[in-house]
Specification:
By secondary structure, this protein is α/β, with parallel strands linked by helices. It is built from 12 helices and 10 strands.
Length: 318
């Protein structure tokens, strides 16, 4: 079996254990805390490492030049410096964690990696459109390439190990990112999509399987480490992924999955639970059997969830 990497969980969710419920609803979301509470950002990374994450993501999903300029009134260069500092906070957490486990023979995540988190353009709009992709009809591929480039360059120059391109809701943005990544040929990334609950579609209505596999194949060889989904209810994941590697035992496409808790999000009401939804832990073996090699949690998942994922992945190895 190819090595399985455990990812972290919902950054905003775990961050709330340090700063309280003052995150959702803010137009900068967790990115504001890069400015106001950097010690809490560091502590959140450390929580996930201690829970067993092999890869932690920088707190940059909603850290954008547009957002910082609009809501903090700061310059582009200052905005990019904040994004670079986000990498430092993750590196500091890795350094502390590695010292903590020097004499711990039971630690399985001895060399954690840092993924630079890159959310979609829709995230900076603060209108929930990363879950619909409606903005994609109004922006060009060139605009999206130019918009994503500064953050990606800043993260790479600061030394992240890979990129987490996540919650991408539409074809145009996915293809723009694949094209942009070719400007950085030594970079590795996973590409994770925002999908509908119908088990077949991107948020914009396009075929998930068709677009995801096309992006994987059109990228530079080896550049896309995995394709998959994030921030979707756990019970909707399998139908999206199950046919990608069906009947292709010798050419498996590596998959990445980090679902939310199953709750629904709206800008006006935040996260709401609708009945009793299955836990993501109920599906771990099923997803790993489909070719998932990167697995974690997204919104409304905590370090305790990562710990449970870690335990199950370790059981699979024995």
């Amino acid at each position: 079996m190819s090595e399985i990497k455990v990812l972290d969980g919902g950054f905003s969710t775990q961050l709330s254990t340090h700063v309280g419920d003052q995150i959702d609803g803010d137009p900068l979301w967790t990115a504001r805390f890069l400015i106001t509470e950097p010690k809490a950002v560091f502590a959140t990374h450390l929580d996930f490492l201690r829970a067993g994450a092999d890869i932690i993501e920088t707190n940059t999903y909603q850290a954008t030049v547009d957002g910082f300029e609009k809501y903090q009134g700061i310059t582009e260069e200052k905005s990019l410096e904040i994004i670079r500092k986000a990498v430092d906070y993750a590196k500091d957490a890795v350094d502390v964690y590695r010292k903590e486990i020097e004499d711990d023979e039971n630690a399985t995540n001895r060399k954690p990696l840092i993924a630079g988190s890159c959310g979609p353009y829709g995230a900076c709009l603060h209108d929930g459109s990363e879950y619909t992709g409606t903005y994609c009809a109004n922006v060009s591929r060139k605009f999206l390439i130019d918009w994503h480039r500064p953050r990606i360059r800043a993260l790479l120059e600061k030394g992240v190990d890979l990129l987490a391109i996540e919650t991408i809701p539409c074809v145009r943005e996915a293809e723009a990112i694949v094209e942009l990544l070719k400007e950085f040929p030594d970079t590795r990334a996973w590409l994770s999509f925002s999908c509908r609950d119908d088990g077949k579609s991107l948020a914009d209505g396009s075929s998930f399987q068709e677009i995801a596999v096309r992006c994987y194949k059109n990228a530079l060889p080896g550049q896309i480490l995995a394709i998959g989904v994030n921030c979707i209810a756990p019970q909707c994941v399998t139908t999206l992924l199950r046919d990608i590697n069906k009947g292709k035992p010798n050419e498996l496409v590596p998959l990445v999955v980090y679902p939310n808790s199953g709750e629904k999000y709206t800008v006006s009401e935040g996260w709401k639970k609708e009945g009793e939804a299955p836990s993501l832990h109920d599906f771990i073996d099923e997803w790993l059997d489909l070719g998932v090699r990167y697995i974690g949690g997204c919104c409304r998942t905590y370090a305790t969830d990562v710990k449970r994922i870690r335990a199950r992945v370790d059981q699979r190895r024995t």
